[in-house]
């Protein structure tokens, strides 16, 4: 019984995680003002990951409790790759349907990117690699994992709502993404699945936004 409780996150651990993340967000405001914003965000998310992993250790929860077990890693990777494929097919189908009705889908998914090359690289690293890991660790690894004892659907809906609402202002893509990430995590039991889908989705959105801003591609898309 004690071992079973260890493998399930408890309310105290979840509350501590939330409090620690709020403290980190507050203290990030004291970082030097002349540091690039994207650098500060990257550092904050890396520290966030370290703090959450440290909390698991401190509370004596095994990696399995947050979807970090090597046991489910292979299944998580396969689920993540399949999820990327199906998300790509769904997005392409939706885009073609909109195009058929005379609506250009690209402005609907456009992401504003930095102008300088350095900031652009930082943006891809922070938003495409670091943020998906940090966000999935908290929203799926902690929130979903704690709530799943109340049922798969409540865990999916509440973790998705928290994910979308905290992305201010919430967009349809975040609600859809949150549902997909939660489904991938729930089906695989591994955080690798939502991290792969999340990172792939972000990188594709950023890449499309960058490509459509280039004169050559812009002329093709907006003749």
Automatic annotation (TrEMBL):
- This protein is called CPBP family intramembrane metalloprotease
Membrane-spanning residues? 12-31, 37-58, 79-100, 120-138, 150-169, 175-196, 203-222
User: A GO term (biological process) for this protein?
Assistant: proteolysis
From which lineage does this chain's organism come? Bacteria, Pseudomonadati, Thermodesulfobacteriota, Desulfobacteria, Desulfobacterales
InterPro entries linked to this entry:
Rce1/LyrA-like_dom
Domain CAAX prenyl protease 2/Lysostaphin resistance protein A-like: from-to ranges: 119-204
Q: Name one GO molecular function term.
A: endopeptidase activity
PANTHER family from the entry? CAAX AMINO TERMINAL PROTEASE, CAAX AMINO TERMINAL PROTEASE FAMILY PROTEIN
């Amino acid at each position: 019984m004690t071992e079973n409780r260890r493998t399930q996150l408890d309310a105290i651990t979840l509350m501590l995680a939330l409090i620690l993340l709020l403290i980190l967000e507050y203290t990030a405001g004291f970082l030097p003002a002349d540091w690039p914003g994207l650098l500060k965000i990257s550092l904050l998310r890396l520290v966030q990951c370290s703090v959450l992993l440290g909390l698991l250790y401190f509370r004596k929860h095994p990696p399995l409790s947050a979807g970090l077990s090597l046991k489910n890693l292979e299944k998580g990777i396969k689920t993540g790759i399949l999820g990327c494929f199906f998300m790509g097919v769904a997005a392409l189908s939706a885009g073609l349907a909109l195009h058929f009705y005379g609506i250009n889908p690209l402005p609907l998914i456009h992401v504003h990117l930095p102008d300088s090359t350095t900031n652009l690289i930082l943006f891809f690293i922070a938003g495409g690699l670091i943020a998906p890991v940090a966000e999935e660790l908290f929203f799926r690894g902690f929130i979903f994992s704690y709530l799943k004892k109340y049922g798969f659907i409540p865990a999916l809906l509440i973790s998705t709502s928290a994910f979308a609402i905290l992305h201010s202002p919430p967009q349809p893509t975040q609600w859809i993404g949150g549902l997909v990430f939660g489904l991938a995590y729930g089906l695989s039991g591994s955080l690798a699945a939502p991290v792969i889908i999340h990172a792939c989705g972000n990188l594709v959105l950023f890449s499309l936004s960058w490509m459509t801003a280039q004169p050559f591609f812009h002329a093709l898309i907006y003749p």
